[in-house]
Inverse folding.
């Protein structure tokens, strides 16, 4: 199984954009649902440390990273440093009281995950935050350094993605099972949309998201998913070289600039896409200007309103318009 939707290098490609946006939308939806129900059910401390394999990676790591930063401990039974680091990480997971989730991965049983993360030696520790993976450290690191790294990770998760952790019931039976979140009213439609995306059925994904929005126009995950699916639809048949040449040769051609901006975003050049459209708004008027403005707002949806690049582009757009 391939752990999809992760950006290991920090370069924002379309898969990473999709994952981060999905995770942020799910986090917003989960917080809203918890607020409606009077809060999120607390989990026992034992639920803060889990064993993860390739089959459950998406469910147990990628999806959970929409709620809380997930720390990945790659280990093996024969690894002596792992026997030192593992218990320390487990103790810290309980001590941090739900601010992060520890997922332990046995590399001998999960060779594909080891390869996907480029693990050269163990113990190796990564994190997944809102669907995006980043390396933390390798080897048996001093506890003080680990604490500092965890503090930074938690701060990033909270400040950028609004991840405030999971509630922990310190008095719970340590062996008590974790109650599963009840299915929401649109879960089946959203799952169908994701399945369609994974299968390359973009039209099916678009329709599934539209079905949700027809009943709940403000649904955050459906709005985000629709924006992403429509972007994928627009770029799937484009010739990148031809599109970029056309945009360079025809700076006043709105259609050419819109296509190039879509490719910019799909290729991870977020600021280039935003800058291109802001400049096109400046050059145009009337219906052309409005068409470019609306496309820019759609691309904001793909990235997420809390991303600093979106904030900067909104400010630049306001200066051009007003």
């Amino acid at each position: 199984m391939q752990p999809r939707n992760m950006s290991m290098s920090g370069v924002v490609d379309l898969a990473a954009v999709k994952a981060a946006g999905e995770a942020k939308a799910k986090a917003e939806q989960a917080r809203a649902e918890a607020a409606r129900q009077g809060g999120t059910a607390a989990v026992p401390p034992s639920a803060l440390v889990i064993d993860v394999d390739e089959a459950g990676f998406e469910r147990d790591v990628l999806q959970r990273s929409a709620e809380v930063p997930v720390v990945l401990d790659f280990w093996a039974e024969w690894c002596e440093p792992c026997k030192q680091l593992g218990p320390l990480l487990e103790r810290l997971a309980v001590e941090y009281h739900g601010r992060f989730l520890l997922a332990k991965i046995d590399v001998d049983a999960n060779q594909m995950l080891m390869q996907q993360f480029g693990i050269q030696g163990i113990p190796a520790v990564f994190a997944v935050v809102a669907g995006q993976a980043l390396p933390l450290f390798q080897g048996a690191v001093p506890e003080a350094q680990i604490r500092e790294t965890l503090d930074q990770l938690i701060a990033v998760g909270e400040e950028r993605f609004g991840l405030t952790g999971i509630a922990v019931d310190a008095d719970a039976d340590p062996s008590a099972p974790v109650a599963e979140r009840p299915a929401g009213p649109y879960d089946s439609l959203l799952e169908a949309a994701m399945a369609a995306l994974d299968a390359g059925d973009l039209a099916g994904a678009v329709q599934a998201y539209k079905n949700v929005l027809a009943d709940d126009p403000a649904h955050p995950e459906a709005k985000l998913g629709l924006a992403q699916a429509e972007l994928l639809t627009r770029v799937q048949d484009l010739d990148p070289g031809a599109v970029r040449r056309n945009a360079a040769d025809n700076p006043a051609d709105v259609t050419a600039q819109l296509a190039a901006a879509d490719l910019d975003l799909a290729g991870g050049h977020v600021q280039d896409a935003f800058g291109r459209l802001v400049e096109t708004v400046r050059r145009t008027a009337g219906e052309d200007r409005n068409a470019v403005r609306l496309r820019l707002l759609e691309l904001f949806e793909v990235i997420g309103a809390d991303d600093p690049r979106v904030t900067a582009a909104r400010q630049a757009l306001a200066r051009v318009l007003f």
